[in-house]
Amino acid sequence: YFFLWPQKLRGPLSKHSDxxxxxxxxxxxxxxxxxxxxFINYVxxxxxxxxxxxxxxxxxxxxxxxxxxxDQDGPALVGxxxxxxxxxxxxxxxxxxxxxxxVRTGINNKS
Length: 111
Fold this sequence. Notes:
- By secondary structure, the chain is of the alpha/beta class.
- Helices cover about 15% and strands about 20% of the residues.
- Strands 2-1-3-5-4 form a five-stranded mixed sheet.
- The chain is globular.
């Protein structure tokens, strides 16, 4: 999982923004059913990821604040020049198709 917390809360889908992919990024990795999704939901202050005993997700997820809840698949995320993930193309279609974007309103993005 990746988290995007931009300095300016315009939302990642704003065209012609100067935001790009602002830091910080948080990369969360762990064993199956170790609480990653529950942790993300707690930190975000709302349900963003599905949590469960069975595997619920098999991809890298970029989570970002925005004005509406929107999901984008990997090709749309990598193909959007405003998002700044185009360099992922060099890793091939397998990685791209195992990446997604979740834009969510009301996530806790304050320290």
